Q: What sequence folds into this?
C-alpha cells in the first residue's frame, strides 16, 4: 500500500494528499505533520519506511469538509485520492492485493463547490491571466474569471495600468498564470496585492490552437463563432482557465456559462487603493462589518448578497442602464407592501446556482435538487405577485420570463423527493413513497424482512429457553445471534446445536447463526441494496433532467438574485430616507445635504445625529458650451472636524448613484464618473519596502497620470508625510496639475492653509472649511462645511482633547504664538502672486542632458560585429565622447 501511496504522492508534490482508507482520509509523512499542525489533530505513526516510522494522521470522511476548509484557508492545496474499485474486486486478485486508488480532484481556493467551503455572500472566482506584447512592447492582458460554484464565466482585456483595479474589483480567490508571466516581479507584486493564491502553470500546451480546441471541446462546438467575437487574448485566457479546471477536477466537468466579454470601460474604474480607502466591501481592518457593503446590504438570499457585492464592485457608466435600475428601486420604494411581500417570498429562495453547480459536478445531494424545486416555485410566486402590478421595464422583463417558466421540472422534483431529505444521497431514503413502484416493492421487502428478524428473535428466545438472546448485525459477521457465556455453552450442546451454529466466542458473549437467519440476511441485504440502487438511478435521472434545463435554471436564479438586490436597495433607501439621484452625462456634481452612510449608521447606533453637508463640484461650461472642467474644492479645518468623512461621503454617493441605488442626500445630480481616485489616510507598505510617504506619492502619481475631466478625485492631506515646505510644494503643484491638466472634479483636504490662496489663480477652485466654534478656549466641532477657509488649525486644542500632558500642551501654545508672530504665511502670499501658473511650463521639460554617447552605444550590437568593426566602433565612441 505504501508503494501505491508514494507513487500517487509523487505526482502531487504541491498538494497535501488525502488518501482514502475505509471511512478516513489518511495523510502520511510531511503531509501528516503539516496537517496535524494546521488542524490540531493527533499525529500517530503507521509502519516503517526506510527504517523510519511513518508519521500519519487522519480525518473522518463525514467531517472532511470542515478540515478541507481549514487547510484551504491556511493556503494549502489538497489532492483527494479515492478508492476506484470495490475492495471485493481487489480481493479477487488475491488476499494481499491493494485496492486501486486514484486522485479524483484537487481542492484549491479557486475551485471550491461545497456549501461548507464557500462564503455564501461572496463569489468564488478563479482567474486565469495571459499577456501579449504589442509592437511598442506594451503589455495587454487577457483575463478569464470563472466561478465554478455558479457557472459564471467572464473574459476581459486590460492594460497593465488597469490590471490592479480589475483584480481589486473581482477579488479572485486564486490566480493561475504561466511560469514566465509570474517571473515578472512587478506583475507578481500586483497579483499578490489582493491576497489570492497564485498558481503557476506550464502554459505552452494551452495557448493558440490548443486554447481554441479546449473551448470547442468544452462546449461541443464546431467553430468558435458560437461564442461571439473573442480576441486571441480572451481565447487564450479562457483556454488556460479550462485547462486548469480540467487539471483540478479530472473527469468531473463543471457546468459553465459560455465565456462572455465584459468591457471594463462600461464600468466605473476604481483602483485597489481607492477600494481599500473607501472601505467599499471591507473595512480597513479587513472585516465586512463597517464597510459600505455591510451598511447597504438588506438582501435576504446568498445569491442576492453576491449580486449586490458584484454591483458595488462594478458601478455602471451607462446612464440608461442606471436609470433602469433606479426605476425598479423607485417602484419598490413607492410600494412598501409589495416590497415586504416579495422579500418574504424571497427569504425562502435557496441558492439555486450553487446547487446546480454541485449537481453538475456529481457532488450534489437530494437537498440540491430540492433547492432547484423550491427556487423555481419561489420564482413563479414572485412573478405572479409582480404581474398584478404595473412594474417598470426591468421588472416587467423578469415577469415575462418567469411567466413563461415551465413548471414540469419542479413538479417532477416535488413528486419525487421525500419530505425529510438527507444531506448525502448514499444512504438513500430521499425518494418519496409512491413515486416508483419498483422502489416501493424493494423497500417493502426490506422493511418486512426487518419485522421478520424481530419475530425470529422472539422465536429463538423460546427455542433457546432464554430471554437474553439478541439478533444483532455487524459488517464482519452480518446478522448473528448473541447470548451470554452460560447460554452459549448450552447452545453448543444437543439438541440446540442442531439449529444454532457457533460463529464466535467473545470475552463475555457467544455468537451463533442459523441457516434460516443466513437466508433471511441475503434477502434483506438484497432488498436494501436494490432499494438503494433504484434511488440512485432515479437521482441520476432527475439530475440529468435538471441539467438539461440548466440555462433556464440559471436565468431563474439570476432573476431571483436581481429581485432580491432591487428590493433590498429599496429597503435601504426607505429605511434611511435616501433620494433618487439625477444621473446624466454632464460634469455635474451637486449634492444637497449629503451624508456618509456608514458613519451615519454608527452615530445613529450611539444616538448621535449626523450633520448633512452640501457639495458642489459641478463642471463649468466654457464658451461654445464646451466643458472647461470640474471644480476643485480645498477643504481646511482642524483634525477631527469631519474632513475625511466629507470627502469619503461624496465618493460613496457617486458610487451608489452609479450602481443605480438611491443615495444618502436630499438631492443629488451627478454626471457619470469614469474613474474614481482617492488618496486618503496614511498607510505604509513595509512588506514591499515602501514608506508612508512613498505609498502616498505612488498613489498620487497614478491619479495625476490617469484622471480625466470625467473623473472624481479625493485627496486627503497630500504631502503631510514629509518636511513642511516639501509637503506644501508638492501639494501646491498637485493642485495646479489637477486644475489645469486633469480638470477632474476634486476634493482636496489639507492642513496647509496657505493653499487656499491659490483661489486667486485657479478659477475653478473653491475654498471650503469645517466649521468649529471656540468655547472658552476649547474647540467644539460642528461638522458643518462652510464656504471660505479655516482661520486656524486648532491642532493644539485637539491635541489637548486627546489627553496630551498639560505641560506639553502649554509649551506647544507658546511655540505656536511665537511662530504666528513671525507670520510664516507672508512669503506664500507673495509666491502666489509671483510664481507663474503651472500651465506655463506644462510641457514636460527637455531632458536635462542629451546623451550622444549613450545613443551611439545603443546602436551597437556586439553579437553582430566582427573584431575589426568592434575596434572601429570603439574609436567612434571615443570621438563622440570628445565632442560631447
Ligand atoms: N457630518 C458629521 N456629522 C456628525 N459627526 C461627524 C460628521 N463628520 C464627522 N463626524 C465625526 O467626527 C469624527 C472625525 O471625523 P473625520 O475623521 O472625518 O475628521 P477629520 O477632519 O478628517 O480628522 P483628521 O484630520 O484627524 O483625519 C468622525 O469619526 C465622526 O464621528
A:
Amino acid at each position: 500500500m505504501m508503494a501505491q501511496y508514494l507513487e500517487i504522492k509523487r505526482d502531487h508534490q504541491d498538494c497535501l494528499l488525502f488518501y482514502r482508507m475505509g471511512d478516513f482520509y489518511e495523510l502520511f509523512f510531511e503531509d501528516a505533520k503539516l496537517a496535524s499542525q494546521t488542524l490540531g489533530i493527533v499525529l500517530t505513526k503507521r509502519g516503517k519506511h526506510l527504517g523510519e516510522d511513518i508519521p500519519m494522521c487522519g480525518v473522518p470522511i463525514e467531517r472532511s469538509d470542515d478540515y478541507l476548509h481549514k487547510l484551504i484557508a491556511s493556503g494549502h492545496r489538497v489532492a483527494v485520492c479515492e478508492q476506484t474499485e470495490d475492495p471485493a474486486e481487489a480481493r479477487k486478485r488475491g488476499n494481499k492485493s491493494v485496492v486501486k486508488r486514484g486522485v479524483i480532484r484537487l481542492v484549491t481556493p479557486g475551485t471550491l463547490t461545497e456549501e461548507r467551503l464557500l462564503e455564501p455572500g461572496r463569489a468564488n472566482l478563479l482567474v486565469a491571466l495571459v499577456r501579449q506584447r504589442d509592437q511598442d512592447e506594451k503589455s495587454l492582458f487577457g483575463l478569464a474569471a470563472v466561478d465554478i460554484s455558479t457557472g459564471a464565466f467572464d473574459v476581459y482585456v486590460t492594460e497593465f495600468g488597469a490590471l490592479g483595479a480589475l483584480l481589486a474589483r473581482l477579488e479572485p480567490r486564486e490566480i493561475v498564470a504561466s511560469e514566465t508571466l509570474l517571473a515578472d516581479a512587478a506583475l507578481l507584486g500586483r497579483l499578490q496585492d489582493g491576497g489570492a493564491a497564485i498558481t503557476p502553470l506550464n502554459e505552452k500546451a494551452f495557448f493558440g490552437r490548443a486554447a481554441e480546441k479546449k473551448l470547442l471541446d468544452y462546449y461541443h462546438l464546431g467553430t468558435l463563432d458560437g461564442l461571439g467575437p473573442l480576441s486571441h487574448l480572451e481565447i487564450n485566457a479562457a483556454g488556460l482557465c479550462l485547462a486548469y479546471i480540467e487539471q483540478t477536477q479530472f473527469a468531473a466537468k463543471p457546468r459553465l456559462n459560455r465565456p462572455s466579454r465584459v468591457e471594463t470601460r462600461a464600468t466605473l474604474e476604481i483602483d485597489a487603493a481607492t477600494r481599500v480607502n473607501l472601505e467599499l466591501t471591507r473595512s480597513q481592518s479587513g472585516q465586512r462589518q463597517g464597510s459600505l457593503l455591510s451598511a447597504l446590504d438588506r438582501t435576504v438570499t446568498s445569491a442576492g448578497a453576491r449580486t449586490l457585492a458584484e454591483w458595488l464592485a462594478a458601478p455602471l457608466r451607462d446612464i440608461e442602464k442606471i436609470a433602469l435600475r433606479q426605476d425598479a428601486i423607485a417602484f419598490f420604494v413607492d410600494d412598501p407592501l409589495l416590497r415586504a411581500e416579495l422579500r418574504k417570498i424571497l427569504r425562502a429562495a435557496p441558492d439555486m446556482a450553487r446547487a446546480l453547480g454541485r449537481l453538475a459536478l456529481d457532488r450534489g445531494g437530494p437537498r440540491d435538487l430540492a433547492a432547484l424545486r423550491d427556487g423555481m416555485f419561489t420564482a413563479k410566486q414572485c412573478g405572479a405577485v409582480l404581474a398584478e402590478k404595473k412594474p417598470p421595464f426591468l421588472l416587467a422583463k423578469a415577469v415575462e420570463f418567469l411567466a413563461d417558466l415551465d413548471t414540469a421540472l419542479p413538479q417532477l422534483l416535488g413528486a419525487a423527493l421525500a419530505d425529510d431529505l438527507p444531506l448525502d444521497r448514499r444512504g438513500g431514503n430521499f425518494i418519496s413513497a409512491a413515486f416508483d413502484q419498483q422502489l416501493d416493492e424493494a423497500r417493502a421487502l426490506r422493511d418486512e424482512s426487518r419485522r421478520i428478524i424481530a419475530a425470529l428473535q422472539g422465536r429463538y428466545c423460546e427455542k433457546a429457553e432464554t430471554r437474553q438472546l439478541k439478533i444483532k448485525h455487524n459488517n464482519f459477521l452480518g446478522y448473528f445471534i448473541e447470548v451470554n457465556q452460560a447460554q452459549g455453552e448450552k447452545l453448543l450442546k444437543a439438541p440446540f446445536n442442531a439449529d444454532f451454529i457457533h460463529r464466535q466466542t467473545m470475552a463475555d458473549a457467544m455468537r451463533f447463526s442459523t441457516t434460516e437467519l443466513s437466508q433471511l440476511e441475503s434477502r434483506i441485504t438484497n432488498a436494501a441494496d436494490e432499494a438503494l440502487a433504484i434511488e440512485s438511478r432515479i437521482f441520476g435521472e432527475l439530475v440529468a433532467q435538471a441539467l438539461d434545463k440548466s440555462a433556464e435554471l440559471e436565468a431563474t436564479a439570476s432573476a431571483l438574485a436581481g429581485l432580491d438586490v432591487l428590493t433590498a436597495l429599496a429597503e435601504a433607501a426607505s429605511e434611511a430616507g435616501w433620494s433618487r439621484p439625477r444621473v446624466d452625462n454632464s460634469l455635474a456634481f451637486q449634492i444637497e445635504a449629503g451624508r456618509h452612510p456608514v458613519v451615519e449608521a454608527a452615530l445613529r447606533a450611539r444616538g448621535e445625529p449626523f450633520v448633512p453637508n452640501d457639495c458642489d463640484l459641478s463642471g463649468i461650461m466654457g464658451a461654445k458650451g464646451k466643458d472647461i472642467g470640474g471644480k476643485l474644492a480645498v477643504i481646511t479645518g482642524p483634525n477631527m472636524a469631519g474632513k475625511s468623512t466629507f470627502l469619503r461621503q461624496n465618493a460613496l454617493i457617486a458610487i451608489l448613484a452609479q450602481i443605480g441605488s438611491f443615495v444618502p442626500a436630499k438631492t443629488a445630480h451627478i454626471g457619470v464618473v469614469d474613474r474614481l481616485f482617492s488618496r486618503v489616510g496614511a498607510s505604509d507598505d513595509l512588506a514591499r519596502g515602501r514608506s508612508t510617504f512613498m505609498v502616498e506619492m505612488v498613489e498620487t502619481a497614478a491619479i495625476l497620470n490617469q484622471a480625466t475631466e470625467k473623473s472624481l478625485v479625493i485627496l486627503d492631506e497630500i504631502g503631510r508625510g514629509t518636511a513642511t515646505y516639501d509637503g506644501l510644494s508638492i501639494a501646491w503643484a498637485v493642485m495646479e496639475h489637477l486644475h489645469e491638466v486633469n480638470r477632474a472634479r476634486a476634493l482636496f483636504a489639507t492642513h496647509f492653509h496657505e493653499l487656499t490662496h491659490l483661489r486667486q489663480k485657479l478659477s475653478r477652485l473653491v475654498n471650503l472649511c469645517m466649521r468649529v466654534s471656540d468655547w472658552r478656549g476649547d474647540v467644539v466641532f460642528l461638522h458643518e462645511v462652510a464656504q471660505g477657509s479655516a482661520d486656524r488649525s486648532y491642532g493644539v486644542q485637539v491635541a489637548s482633547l486627546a489627553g496630551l500632558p498639560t505641560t506639553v500642551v502649554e509649551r506647544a501654545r507658546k511655540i505656536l504664538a511665537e511662530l504666528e508672530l513671525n507670520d510664516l504665511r507672508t512669503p506664500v502670499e507673495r509666491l502666489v502672486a509671483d510664481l507663474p501658473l503651472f500651465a506655463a511650463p506644462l510641457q514636460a521639460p527637455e531632458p536635462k542632458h542629451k546623451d550622444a554617447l549613450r545613443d551611439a552605444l545603443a546602436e551597437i550590437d556586439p553579437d553582430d560585429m566582427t573584431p575589426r568593426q568592434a575596434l572601429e566602433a570603439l574609436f567612434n565612441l571615443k570621438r563622440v565622447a570628445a565632442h560631447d
About this structure: The mean pLDDT is 87. Residues 599, 603, 610-611, 613, 639-645, 783 surround adenosine-5'-triphosphate (CB under 6 Å). Residues 852-883 form one domain. Residues 192 and 198 are 7 Å apart (CA to CA).
